[in-house]
Design goal:
alpha+beta; elongated; 717 residues; four-stranded antiparallel sheet; 49% helix
Length: 717
């Protein structure tokens, strides 16, 4: 038996003790529909509960037993089934079916004991409301529409959507849209960067509403086309985020697996068609128009939601139901997880438990691998949800709900599995016990031992350069007329500022006047007192003159190292005024190369001066790695890139903000200066990636540190 909910039956006691003397009747409103055959070719049926709109898939044995359920006595049901069919059911099979029907309330009220059972179950559910609220506040549904009648009316008008011609036409137009967009992919990706603003968020939300509405309409129309009733449509809240949903539970009634697959994939196909058509229209719309921007929102949102969320089979979204229907494996997650748990126990603990179901070896291995990937994927999702919950709510409630998410969704399943291991620890082979201890100890040791890491960051390499700039507004006295070599310390530019000369002359004249006055003090009665004051004035004037000389010396621009003077401003000539922000020339030393890497804030703490670096050039220049050493790490984020070719707008690796922000990186990046050990084979600048030796750290310590920091901060220790 399988269905949209777990149908596991707890085996307890003998079959006779699990069966009543007289079988209670089934609820009269239940419906039984033929379903698609099982993978082994055996027939299948679906029990529909109209009250809860739940569906339960049963096999041949269960169908035959239910067909004779009205006989009442268990032995009569078993003997009739044995005599009328080729099946040989026993009391265990009948007891399992009885407990399944009892657990899902598919039996009618037949005696006082059953009434007490329902009342006790209701009380337990009532007492468990707090627990239910704790782990269901993250996901709940609000039905808003009963669209069955409306869908039946509009379906004839939209029947052309399901024709082969429409499918071929839409596919051709989408392919054309992809080809046209590929030809100007830089412009498309740059548009995405430009929309990372508050206004862009509004555009994406509006596009998301349109995309998801059409997505759910695709599910609903396809289900209606195959004769199913769409019970309701509404809004589901996932971590307080609203998402539209459509109830297509009746698809379990369909015997044709391809029809169920069409219903499951209708939303995804609708989104992909919308994305392709929006991309085609984006290519045809006028540049800079509001229509082109709206089409971009639609295309990017549809692609993003389809490829990152809906297509994933690891959560219960469209991708899961598509895979489940394609493989004809209802309850895929539960069945794969049960198979993987058994395989894990047998492998690690040496047990010999039989598989819950028998599959061919290839499919069995695939299902076990699928279960392992699903566990890891869901672990990341649940931890992300826990972090989102912590950040969404106020401090105390956020910490509490964070703990609830981690305990309920992460630690509780692990603890349940460990309890099974502990309850059957006598069955674990002695060698496997030591193996398990060594394995756990090895994992703990690997997590505790500091490991070295490599930090990868976008970078560029170039010969060591020095830019010549005037320290203050000044006039050119002498400048090189053409590129050439200069020695270290040689003057390159001579500048002047008349005001400095005027102030220097005034200070020198004042100093000379004071000196003359000092010479005239001979023989005066109060000469010594005046001498002291004049000496102070003379020292002050001398300091002023020296300051002006130093300022004038700054206007003599000298080469800090030997190299080649290049990129001389052609407008420079004696008498021309220059400003401090105006580049005059560049001094290049081809024998010494340096690089600059741009590291994220998360990796910055791992780096230190003196760390070893390998620079890998990209493209045609990727001949060999250049080794180097970190010489400096900036403590403030980079507000502007040093060269346009680093920007993604010019084919570089760093994403920058929209045009109004110049070359400001979108992310928080910090510049790391690197001295390379040898020059590159080419004289031009190189784009590439720097691989920097990071500080060795323990994974366990790094994982616990944020939690400790949060606890200290939030509890005010």
């Amino acid at each position: 038996m399988d269905g949209p909910v777990s149908t596991a039956v707890i085996q307890m006691g003998t079959a006779a003790s699990r069966l009543p003397v007289a079988l209670p009747p089934l609820r009269e409103e239940l419906q039984l529909h033929p379903a698609a055959a099982h993978a082994d070719g055996s027939p299948a049926w679906v029990i529909q509960d109209p009250v809860t709109n739940a569906f339960y898939r049963i096999g041949w044995l269960e169908f035959e037993l239910l067909s004779r359920w009205a006989l009442g006595a268990p032995q009569l049901v078993l003997s009739a089934t044995t005599s009328d069919t080729l099946l040989k059911p026993g009391e265990d099979e009948l007891a399992d079916l009885y407990e399944f029907l009892l657990a899902h309330q598919l039996l009618s009220v037949h005696h006082a004991g059953y009434t007490r059972h329902l009342a006790q179950r209701h009380r337990k559910q009532h007492m468990a409301k707090a627990r239910w609220l704790l782990h269901h506040y993250l996901f709940f549904r609000l039905p808003l529409l009963n669209p069955a009648a409306t869908l039946q009316k509009i379906l004839p008008w939209l029947s052309w959507l399901f024709t082969r011609g429409t499918a071929l036409g839409v596919a051709s137009l989408c392919l054309l849209g992809l080809l046209l967009t590929a030809r100007q992919w830089d412009a498309f990706s740059a548009s995405f960067v430009d929309t990372l603003t508050l206004g862009g968020l509004g555009g994406y939300l509006a596009a998301l509403a349109v995309t998801k509405s059409l997505h759910e309409l695709g599910h609903a129309l396809t289900a209606t086309r195959y004769g199913l009733r769409v019970a309701h449509m509404g809004v589901a809240f996932v971590v307080m985020w609203p998402m539209l949903y459509t109830d297509t539970g009746e698809s379990w009634r369909l015997r044709d697996r391809r029809q169920r697959l069409a219903i499951a994939s209708a939303g995804l196909v609708t989104e992909l068609a919308l994305a392709g058509l929006a991309m085609l229209a984006w290519n045809l719309a006028a540049d800079g128009s509001a229509l082109k921007q709206s089409l971009f929102y639609l295309a990017s949102t549809a692609w993003l939601i389809s490829l990152t969320l809906n297509i994933s089979p690891f959560m219960r979204f469209d991708g899961y139901f598509i895979v489940s229907d394609a493989l004809d494996l209802p309850n895929l997650h539960e069945r794969a997880s049960a198979l993987a748990r058994t395989a894990l126990r047998n492998t690690l603990l040496g047990w010999a438990d039989p598989d819950p179901e028998r599959f061919e070896p290839g499919r069995r291995r695939a299902l076990i691998a699928f279960a392992y990937i699903t566990w890891v994927y869901r672990l990341g999702v649940f931890l992300g949800i826990a972090a989102a919950v912590y950040l969404f709510f106020f401090k105390l409630l956020g910490l509490f709900l964070f703990a609830v998410e981690v305990v309920w969704f992460v630690l509780r399943p692990v603890a349940a599995e460990l309890r099974v291991w502990a309850s059957r620890r006598s069955e674990i082979r002695r060698g496997r016990r030591w193996l398990a201890v060594l394995f756990a100890g090895g994992l703990l040791l690997a997590a505790a031992v500091p490991w070295g890491v490599e930090v990868h960051a976008p970078a560029w390499a170039h010969p060591e350069t020095h830019g010549f700039y005037s320290p203050l507004p000044a006039r050119v006295v002498r400048a090189p007329s053409r590129p050439g070599s200069v020695a270290a310390g040689a003057p390159v530019f001579e500048l002047e500022q008349p005001e400095i000369g005027y102030r220097a002359d005034a200070s020198r004249a004042a100093s000379e006047a004071v000196e003359s006055e000092l010479r005239g003090l001979t023989g005066e009665a109060n000469g010594e007192e005046r001498r002291f004051a004049l000496l102070q004035r003379q020292a002050m004037r001398a300091a002023e003159w020296q300051a002006q000389q130093d300022e004038a010396g700054r206007l003599q621009l000298k080469a800090p190292f030997a190299g080649l003077v290049a990129d001389i401003d052609p407008e420079l000539a004696p008498g021309v005024w220059v400003t401090p922000r105006q580049p005059l020339a560049i001094l290049v030393d081809p024998s010494r190369w340096q690089a600059e890497a741009f590291v994220s804030q998360a990796d910055l703490s791992r780096l230190k001066t003196g760390s070893q670096v390998r620079f890998h050039a990209s493209g045609a220049d990727a001949v060999k790695a250049l080794n180097g050493t970190v010489t400096g790490i900036e403590s403030t984020r980079t507000v502007s890139l040093p060269h346009p070719m680093l920007s993604n707008r010019h084919g570089g690796p760093i994403t920058v903000l929209q045009e109004g922000s110049g070359l400001a990186p979108r992310d928080a990046l910090y510049r790391v200066r690197i001295r390379l050990d040898e020059p590159a084979a080419t004289p031009r600048m190189l784009l590439g990636q720097a691989v920097i030796e990071g500080e060795s750290r323990s994974w366990l310590v790094e994982a616990l540190k944020p939690a400790v920091v949060v606890l200290i901060r939030e509890f005010g220790f």
